[in-house]
């Protein structure tokens, strides 16, 4: 490969960051995504990943961000195809892409685990939510429903059909529910005044960057508003 | 969370290296690094530094705080203070471990540094254990943990939240059964579960 080509490649790579984020823009209705850079997307995904790992319940999905990142990754891989495998740049870029892919995979895997554990509970909750408010992506919903179907069918085949009638159909009692009062480690991103921290309505003011251990339910809304993150 | 994940997160820290090659800046998703000029220091993420060091393509410049005098001072301060002092890096253990294992030759007085960093960690760990003991006996449900690093939090992660969860569950059960026996006592029990907040961990 000539030197000129390498420079051209690099030039193209320079533009990747800004461009790829705009690729999906035409398909999006809202303008929030317009200005976002790949770096910002990665930060959002990282925070979502760590929050998801630490939170007892399933959090809102990040499909938009994931799609942006997936297209960014494949775009960069496309451009790297022509680079020599031992080229310094190729090695470093592919190392970073591996890291990004790990975050995305680990994030999705973590969500699937929660879906498998709390299937019925999550599906029930999703039904009560408005279409804009859904926490699962359409694919995850499909997975949850099919998983639920298979588990039910399996239990029916191996066990429940041989049981007396009154012991079947106790669906409500079989639901596994996450313990929302379980304790989590939290870091405040901004100053949050008057957070209720105890059973007797005791309040504290959280300074930016301060860390706390606290029952999840008391701070769940801070996570949604991005005022704090789990650690 | 796995310790490997803590390391993964810590590897994002920036560290200075002196490359022995030259190259244009690299535009990573995480941000741009470079340009690389042989012999001139440049900041790169830790994961890249360890990789380049293994390939013999650079020397790692230890962070400023990786210095005997500074660390001895931190250690003394940590001993004196009742609370946790602020560490020079959010991931000091991860950084120290990675730098010293990949590039022991780049760090002057490496072995001594290793010992003093371990000492600091041990002092903090034992302080953490004492505070947790007092915290749980005080029946709190909330505490401030300022200045603790991720690895230190992780070292108590399985046991502390779980035991607090269990205590909370017993308290709820106790409240519920009290309510069953007498309506009168229930109204009082509802407002007497634990003294609540506790801020043993910070000043």
Automatic annotation (TrEMBL), chain A:
GO terms for biological process: DNA-templated DNA replication; double-strand break repair via break-induced replication. It holds the Pfam family Sld5. Residues 78-157 form the GINS subunit domain. Its main location: nucleus. Residues 178-231 form the DNA replication complex GINS protein SLD5 C-terminal domain. It is found in: Chromosome; Nucleus. GO terms for cellular component: GINS complex. Keywords: Chromosome, DNA replication, Nucleus. Residues 1-32 are annotated as: Disordered. The GINS complex plays an essential role in the initiation of DNA replication. Belongs to the GINS4/SLD5 family. This is DNA replication complex GINS protein SLD5. It comes from Drosophila pseudoobscura pseudoobscura (Fruit fly). The gene is Sld5.
From TrEMBL, chain B:
GO terms for biological process: chromosome condensation; DNA replication; double-strand break repair via break-induced replication. Signal peptide: none annotated. Belongs to the GINS2/PSF2 family. The keyword Glycoprotein does not apply. Residues 65-166 form the GINS subunit domain. Residues 2-61 form the DNA replication complex GINS protein PSF2 N-terminal domain. One of its GO terms (cellular component) is GINS complex. The keyword Nucleus applies. It is found in: Nucleus. Gene3D superfamilies: 1.20.58.1020, 3.40.5.50. This is DNA replication complex GINS protein PSF2. Coiled coil: none annotated. Component of the GINS complex. Residues 179-203 are annotated as: Disordered. Keywords: DNA replication, Nucleus.
